[in-house]
Specification:
By secondary structure, the chain is mostly helical. The chain has a single domain, classed as CDP-alcohol phosphotransferase transmembrane (TM) domain (Four Helix Bundle (Hemerythrin (Met), subunit A), Up-down Bundle), CATH 1.20.120.1760. 71% of the residues lie in helices and 2% in strands. Strands 1-2 form a two-stranded antiparallel ribbon.
Length: 265
């Protein structure tokens, strides 16, 4: 009898580099929560963007090094739930708690109402991320790779984080600042569970030569972000979030049949 070929047996164990990057993304989300509890919302927002950077690297490194595993995909989803689901929701709620205290001291009322609206909006966001990730994992094998169905969870988290960062730096008035933050948080959650199509950027071939204008369009955002990070980041991710509904409306208008003009009598 021939001895079995041990080279064909499945490997046991885990690849260090991609899982280490996923762990870094998970830690960044955890740190965002801690920073928000301590009242440092600028660091909390930055930590969520750092988590986005690590989240973008782990999958790409796994594909380049051919170290993709089922464990890595599951671990990445769990990390995304913490970094882009729970962390932004808690940061938004903690920011709201501080503003609610100011609003109560100023108006002497509506504290309970704002608190309930706050935890409803932030829980809706966290639940939307969980549903978005579950839908993505269930349909990943059959979905068109060129587009995402619904706003990606990192983009939704970036939209919430950048707006809170913007509100914190500009010291928005207590009452006037609560409603926009909760609306942006709830709207981000709604876009994530929507069926709007978003460009995934996965069809870009980074090895092929491109025109100078195309290169400028890719590089320019990274150049202008240091000018005013919260404003530029909120603008960029806000435009991307609106691109789904705008594209949907544009396609609907294109498909609408034109009315024929009346003929000569």
């Amino acid at each position: 009898m021939e001895e079995p070929n041990n080279n064909t047996a499945p490997r046991r164990g885990f690849y260090l580099l991609p899982n280490l990057l996923t762990t870094a993304a998970l830690f960044s989300g955890f740190y965002a929560v801690v920073a928000a509890i301590d009242g440092n919302f600028e660091r909390a927002a930055i930590a969520i963007f750092v988590a986005m950077a690590f989240d973008g690297l782990d999958g790409r490194v796994a594909r380049i090094t051919h170290t993709e595993t089922a464990f890595g995909k599951e671990y990445d989803s769990l990390s995304d739930m913490v970094s882009f689901g729970l962390a932004p929701a808690i940061v938004a709620y903690q920011w709201g708690v501080a503003r609610i205290a100011e609003a109560v001291s100023e108006t002497g009322r509506h504290g309970v109402l704002w608190s309930r609206l706050g935890w409803l909006a932030t829980f809706f966001f966290a639940a939307s991320v969980a549903l978005r990730l579950a839908r993505f994992n269930a349909r990943s094998s059959t979905q068109d790779k060129r587009y995402f169905e619904g706003l990606p969870s990192p983009s939704g988290a970036a939209l919430v984080a950048s707006f809170i960062w913007l509100a914190w730096e500009n010291e928005l008035h207590a009452v006037l600042g609560l409603a926009p933050v909760f609306v942006v948080t709830a709207l981000s959650g709604a876009l994530m569970v929507s069926r709007f199509s978003y460009w995934s950027f996965k069809q870009l071939n980074w090895r092929n030569p491109v025109s100078f204008l195309y290169l400028l369009a890719v590089v320019l955002p990274f150049v202008i972000i240091p000018i005013d990070p919260p404003v530029i980041l909120f603008t960029l991710f806000g435009v991307y979030a609106l691109s789904g509904p705008v594209t949907w409306v544009w396609r609907k208008l294109r498909r609408r049949p034109r009315r024929s003009l009346p003929g000569p009598t």
